[in-house]
Amino acid sequence: MKKKIMKLTALLAVCALMVGALAACGSSGSSDTPAGSGSGAAAPTGETFTVGICQLVQHPALDAATQGFRDALVEELGEGAVEFDEQNASGDSATCATICNGFASDNVDLIMANATPALQAAAAATATIPILGTSISTYGAALNIDNFDGTVGGNISGTSDLAPLDQQAAMVKEIFPDAKTVGIMYCSSEANSVYQADEMEKYLTEMGMTVNRYTFSDSNDVSLVTQEACDGNDVLYIPTDNTAASCTDAIDAVAKQAKTPIVAGEEGLCTGCGIVTLTIDYYELGKITGQMAAKILKGEADISTMPIEYFPNTTKKVNTANAEIYGLTIPEDYVAIEAEE
């Protein structure tokens, strides 16, 4: 009996050793598995975020803002931590709605809406997914908010590209002191363009100029409207209007034929068809938006309490080639727009 007990004890000891060895093998194998493997995560925190980008149309200002947003978000969260679903609506508001509804259906982690129609579409698509706008002049006008106090609330915040309009009006007077009539030309369906036109008309009228307004509904009638505006005015002003920004070649051809100079609301417009502008840096504006997105995704900020942010500096810029064509001498405090290579 004693021998049987000893044999049983030895057998149990061998089993215990085998179990320990198997456990050790399993433990050493797990150390070869990358952190976060199996979840698709590449961020240090083990999370991967999906960000939908809806851009209204392709033109230099919006393109720069989108690139700045992407660069800042990758810089903040790490390479591979963000999957971007970037889509362009080719200037069509209905397509913006389709894109943003798709983002809502896919339940992306955040939506970046580049330009006013994109923001409006995103706001209509979801009340829960965080939405950051960029290249928006005024959120009050874009979202029909009375007495806007600087914070949208709910699931929306973002950045504004609005330059001081009183200073842009003063620029018209500075460069064209003999001008008596100014034509303001913009897309009637862009709420922020309407807002800028209202403000500029007020400032220019106070300076003693006669203001005439000209609107187009889409790119199809831009050339005809430009011709009418050129025929009736000494100088034109075009605000930060996305439709106009995507049609600068057509505008420029008509304006030069009519010898009617243009003051533009931002650098991309000025490069395409203008003489001078007071502009912000859209790439840096996009980076500010990306930094806001990183705080939201990391849980460091509540979007409902985040105020709209603005690019802190504006720069006077001149399209020197166009200035020479019109025979204008531009003050030395204007920075020449770099020619595209």
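(the above was protein one; protein two follows)
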Amino acid sequence: MNLGIIVIFAVLASPAPSPSPAAPPANDPCGGSTTNMLATLNRPTIGFSACAVKPRQSVWELGYNNVLQSDGSRAAVYPQGFIRFGVAPKIEVDAIGPLYEVQQAQGAVQRGFLDAGVGAKYEFFQDESSVAAVDLLYSLPTGAPAFTAGAPIATLNLDYGRSLSPVSGFATTIGVQSSYSQDSNGRSARFTSLVPSVAFTTQANPRTQFYAEAFGQTRVRPDGGTLFGIDGGIQYMLLPCLELDAELGQTATDLARAHYFGFGFGLRF
């Protein structure tokens, strides 16, 4: 279940907040009065951006993700909804969902909604080249029986991003997650894990950004197991308020391996 959660939260991930040559003013890596999309978007990485959406603005992150497991099973998730609202300077609130999954395994197909939830971000530090924030995400067991975690899941993230040059940046997220799933024997229980990630970004031009990322999870079920993954992709600003992206990634746990691809967009209102 937690491998699914990790991949689903590829919707929730984030390029480093490196200042874009097209993003005024230069002393605010998150964009001044207007949200800098390449710095602020969470998708398509696993980690989270340290930049909050600017007040009275909203950013909608939507996409499609397809995961192929080593046993031949496949899962597709869409529209990967993550909707963000700037409610005050350096503060945003979030809606997690809708998330719909189609799973194919051993000739059978299951469909249903995943758990929905809410979130918030507080950007507590910023200077000309770096940003730091905390995120809180909380999902409720609202999904279909085949896809719900069965209990609330809470994640607290510490996010940090730093510009390394006018066109490149570094970002990391250290998450602590209280989760709930089945162990290897089918017994459900709550457990706590760390969910770290680190990403590097570089811009080919003011509209085009590439990224590479490594991420992990210290426990993926109550009786242990670990996860490690890598991914990379491209983001392109089609319009000042519209970003398009594509990604490829691989994950491995003590029990299974998987690779995935995805694509989507971010839209600022």
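Reviewer note on protein two: The longest helix spans residues 2-8.
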